[in-house]
Design brief:
Layout (H helix, E strand, L loop, with lengths): L1 E4 L5 H11 L12 H10 L4 E6 L2 E11 L8 H5 L14 E9 L8 H16 L3 E6 L13 H9 L8 H6 L3 E6 L12 E7 L4
């Protein structure tokens, strides 16, 4: 397996990953389009990552640099509606992940973990303070009637509840630092997201 920067020429590979990772009824207009991929590669090529297994596309991840202030925000604001050009700050202090997806046939084979390790390596290479991301909590809707979102995140963090996404983030060494309502239109997470953080150990 290799992780490399993706470019516009990789669009068909990236679209294949998106289609298989997010099949219908997932809205097709939410898959990356050519203009967005071109913008990722031109604006911050180091943050545009493609994982391949024996040359076959397996997963991808996209990130940008921001100056993290802790202010509430939406995914659209952080990601510049998926184009990153308007929100990327080359003088910022944090790497912000806006997307990770893995083809179903390659899941449970270390692809997502490798992409996260590549992001951590990038944080250290660039001398940034941290890696952060807005993490979905897709199992929260199962518990929303019996506990607050704060209590849910606490119980997931303590290992009492398993969340499909947040539990994975915790295994990657990320820690929840903030809960943001209205982050993304997401019925399973009730529109909540948890900002998770991995601090640069070299700083």
């Amino acid at each position: 397996m290799t992780v490399r920067e993706y470019k516009l020429v990789d669009f068909d590979k990236l679209l294949l990953i998106q289609k298989e990772a997010f099949p219908p009824p997932f809205p097709e207009d939410l898959w990356w389009n050519r203009e967005q991929i071109e913008a990722h590669a031109a604006t911050f090529p180091e943050g545009a990552m493609l994982a391949e297994v024996d040359g076959e596309p397996a997963g991808s991840a996209t990130s940008l640099i921001v100056n993290f202030t802790g202010e509430a925000h939406t995914w659209e604001e952080a990601a510049d509606n998926g184009y990153v050009k308007g929100s990327h700050d080359p003088y910022g202090d944090s790497l912000y992940g806006i997307d990770v997806c893995v083809r179903p046939k390659f899941r449970r084979s270390g692809i997502a973990g490798a992409l996260y390790e590549a992001r951590k390596d990038l944080v250290m290479k660039l001398g940034l303070k941290r890696y952060i991301a807005g993490c979905r909590i897709p199992n929260y809707h199962e518990y929303a009637e019996t506990m607050s979102v704060d209590k849910y995140v606490e119980k997931v963090s303590e290992g009492e509840i398993k969340d499909l996404v947040l539990s994975f983030m915790l295994k990657q060494g990320l820690e929840p630092i903030q809960i943001i309502p209205g982050y993304l239109d997401d019925e399973e997470s009730l529109d909540y997201a948890v900002i998770v953080e991995w601090k640069n150990p070299n700083l």
